[in-house]
Amino acid sequence: MSDRSARLSLGFSCVGHTYSHLVAPTFFVVALTLEKELGLTHGEVISLIVLGNMLYGLAAPVSGWLGDKWSAAGMMALYYFGLGAGMILTGLAATPLQMAVFLAFTGIFGSIYHPVGFAWLVSQVEKRGQALGINGVFGSIGPSIAALSAGVLTDLISWRAAFIVPGAVIFATGLVFFVMLKRGAVHDRETVTVAHPKPTKAEVLRVVAVLAVTMLCTGLIYQSTSPALPKMFSERFDLFTEGGVFGIGVLVALVYVVAGAFQIVAGRMCDRYPLKRVYLLAFISQIPFLVLAAQFGGGVLLLAALVMVSANQAALPVENTMVARYAPKDRRAFAYGLKFIVAFGFSGLGVWLEGAIYDMTGGLHWLFMLLACVALVGFAVSWLLPDDKAAEPQPQPAE
C-alpha cells in the first residue's frame, strides 16, 4: 500500500479496533469493585452491560448501511466521538440505572466499528487474511489494555477513572481523525480490488446458513468467557491476585495478548490454506481446554485460558475473510453489520448467561462445560462449509 490515505486508513482501522474492545473488559474488571460499592450480586452487576452488549451487535447493520450509503470515513469520525463520550458518561454515572443507560449509549456508537472499519480495511489491502489477522491483534490488545488500565486506575484512583481516562483518549483520537478527514488525508476511495472467482448463489446461501450458526457459537464463547475470566482468576488464582484487581488485570491482559498473536498466525493461514480447514481447527482446539478450565485453577487454569481464548480468536480472521469473499463489495459494510448481529448482538446474552449461572450455582464449572458443547456444535456445523481454494487470485487495479 503506497497510497498515504490507504496507510492512514489501515492505521485508524487498527487503532479503532483496539478501542472497540475496551469498554466491556474494563467493565468486567471494574465489576469486581462495583459488587461491593453498589451492594449488588455478581449477576446483577453484570446485567448492567447486557443491553449495551446486545446493541453493540444489533445496531451494526444500520451502521454498516450508513457506511455503504453515506461515508465510511464519516461514520468512523462518529464512532470515535460517540464511543469516547459514552465511556466518559459511564464513569460519571451516579446510579446503576444511569450506568446501564450510558453503557447502552456506548454500545450503539461502538457498533459502528466492525462493519465500517472492516469493510474499509479489506478495500485497501491485497492479502486480506493477513491484514485481518494484524487488525485482529489490535482488537485483542483492547482487552489487554482495558484489563491493565482498569486494574491500575481502579486501585490508584477510582473505578470512575477506569472509564473516563480511556474515554478522553478515544475522543481526542476522534479530533485528530476529523482534522485529517477535513484535509483529505483520509477518504472513502477504494484503492485496491481483489479479483477471485465469483461464488454461485448456492454457495453464498450455504455459507450464510453455516456462518449464522458458527458465528453464534464463536460469539457466545467469547461473550461468556470475557466476564468469567476475571471472576475465575480472582477465585482460583489466590497467590497472584491477592490485594486488589491489578493482578487479575495482568492475567487477563496476558491471555488476550497471546490470543492476539494467534490471530496473525490464523490470518496468514487464511491466505495459504482452505478457510474451512482453518475454521475447523479453531473450533476443535477449544473443546478440551474449555473442559480443563471448568475443572482446575492456578497454572492449569491460566494455560487453559491462554489456549481456549487464542483458538476462539483465531476463528475471527476466517469469518471476516469469508464475509469479504462472499459479500458484494457495494454491500460489504452492511454484510459485516449482519455478521455482528450474530457475533455480538444475540451472543451478547452470553454475558447474562455467565452471571446467571454463577448466581445459581456459586461457580462457573457448568458454564465452561456448556461452552465446550457449544464449541462442539460449531465444529460439527463447520463441516458443511463449501471447500475453497487456499489463496485468492492476484489483485487487479482499481477502476
Verbal overview:
With 399 residues, this protein is mainly α. The chain has one domain (4-190, 198-388): Growth Hormone, Chain: A, CATH 1.20.1250. It has helices at 4-20, 23-38, 42-46, 50-58, 60-69, 72-91, 96-110, 113-122, 128-156, 159-182, 201-236, 238-241, 246-272, 275-295, 298-326, 332-345, 349-361, 365-382, and strands spanning 193-194, 395-396. Strands 1-2 form a two-stranded antiparallel ribbon. Helix 4 packs antiparallel against helix 16 (332-345), helix 11 runs antiparallel to helix 15 and helix 11 runs antiparallel to helix 18 (365-382). Residues 390-399 have low confidence and may be disordered.
Structure at a glance:
The chain is an all-alpha fold and 399 residues long. The protein is built from 18 helices and two strands. Helix 1 crosses helix 9 (128-156) and helix 6 runs antiparallel to helix 8 (113-122).
Task: Give me some keywords for this one.
single chain; 399 residues; mainly alpha; Growth Hormone, Chain: A; globular; disordered C terminus
CATH-derived architecture: Up-down Bundle
* Oligomeric state as shown: single chain
* Fraction of residues in H or I helices: over 70%
Low-confidence stretches: 390-399
Largest sheet report: 2 strands, antiparallel
CATH superfamily label:
MFS general substrate transporter like domains
Number of domains: 1
Number of strands: 2
* Tally of individual helices: 18
- What's the order of the H and E elements? HHHHHHHHHHEHHHHHHHHE
Q: Can you tell me the CATH topology?
A: Growth Hormone, Chain: A
Instruction: Give the strand order of the largest sheet, numbering strands 1, 2, ... along the chain.
Output: 1-2
Q: What Rg, in angstroms, do the CA atoms define? A: 20 Å
Structural class: mainly alpha
Question: N- to C-terminal separation?
Answer: 16 Å
Query: So what's the overall shape?
Result: globular
Strand content: under 5%
Mean pLDDT: 84
